[in-house]
Amino acid sequence: MNIIKVNDTQMGGKEAFKIVKADMENGIKVLGLATGSSPITLYKEMTNSDLDFSNMTSVNLDEYVGLKPDNEQSYHYFMKEHLFSKKPFKNSYVPDGSNPDAEAATKAYDKIIEENPIDLQILGIGRNGHIGFNEPGSPLDGTTRKVSLTESTIEANTRFFEDEKDVPRFAYSMGIGSIMKAKKIILLAYGEAKADAIAATVNGPVTTDCPASALQNHPDVTLIVDDAAASKLN
Ligand SMILES: N[C@@H]1[C@@H](O)[C@H](O)[C@@H](COP(=O)(O)O)O[C@@H]1O
Question: What residues contact 30, with CB distance under 8 A and at least 6 apart?
């Protein structure tokens, strides 16, 4: 893995943007996108840039089950607010969390991923090493699935909701196998709360205990981390 150390999230956004820009100049067509606070500075760089995304397709990692796209806590809403309303893409896909039929929703999303092979995937990481919403124990070769969120993830996400009981307990998430098919991956991690997960991702064994450790088997991964997130690396 290629590791880029940055001073802060602003610089992290700029470093990630450089890669996005260069890859777009080289003709990539499909970006895999993530939610959470980590990619926000990258999305700011993208929206402030003069890059044109109107010929690009985006495929997002995940969505809460039970939230409609117009729900302010949904990942549809997050993406619209941070990126798509300012920089429209040709097509922007996010799993359909409003579809209670998990089988149909996940199959439909797998088809979208298959038809739009991801050139560059942006990832954040959960405190427990999850990527997308693939919590510890997720199959490292999985496709899109309905997942139960762990207590630690629910707790981490409570900050975005008025009440902990409003945090959805389930999500539809692209699987780790699908993430691994992306041609290139950038993982963004900032802050001390991510230090253990980053150490396990880079130095630990490849294990379902740390879903992001699967990235060790990918040929083109760049980690953009600040000093705190990198503080437990060997
Ligand atoms: N499903 C998302 C992940 O894709 C994201 O990586 C993680 C970390 O979020 P943050 O960047 O806010 O720490 O949050 C959620 O669980």
Answer: 56, 57, 58, 59, 116, 117, 118, 119, 120
